[in-house]
Design a protein that fits this description.
globular, Rossmann-like_a/b/a_fold, UspA domain protein, Universal_stress_UspA, UspA
């Protein structure tokens, strides 16, 4: 891999994506790369959050606390906040985008349009960290990306 000049950081509000933000910040500091902070907003967030068998949302999707059906999902601004803080703490230059649409296609399209050299993302979306291997979005991005992909565990 050559020294990246543009890093696409895909954030979904999970702890895995915040770990990815820390990796992206470190790489950007070492290389001087600019980071494109991308949040793919789900047009129907209440339908995509995972539920347990008792009707509560799973812990990872709600920041660690099971929630009842009355729970309002965090806004895109709230989901991106911790990643934004990580980049600012590391004094990394970044641009921020929130785009509505399917995550994998949105990430791939943004990477191509912005001529990114590296995509950094978590291995799972709103599923649980207990799942093995990588999630569907990460797998799709790894297989179809126009550049190197780093999946943070």
């Amino acid at each position: 891999m050559t020294k990246p000049s543009r890093i696409l950081l895909a954030i979904d509000g999970t702890q895995g994506s915040y770990r990815a933000a820390r990796h992206a910040a470190l790489i950007a500091n070492l290389t001087g790369a600019e980071v494109i902070l991308l949040h793919c907003a789900d047009p129907h967030p209440s339908l995509s959050l995972p539920f347990s068998t008792d009707g509560t949302r799973t812990a990872d999707a709600t920041g660690g606390m099971p929630q009842s059906f009355g729970y309002a999902p965090p806004s895109p601004h709230e989901r991106v906040g911790p990643a934004r803080d990580i980049l600012q703490d590391h004094q990394v230059r970044y641009m921020e985008h929130t785009v509505e649409g399917p995550a994998a296609e949105t990430i791939l399209g943004m990477a191509q349009r912005e001529h990114c050299d590296l995509i950094v993302m978590g291995r799972h979306g709103t599923g649980t960290d207990d799942e093995p291997d990588v999630g569907r979005t990460a797998e799709h991005v790894v297989r179809a990306a126009p550049c190197t992909v780093m999946v943070a565990a």
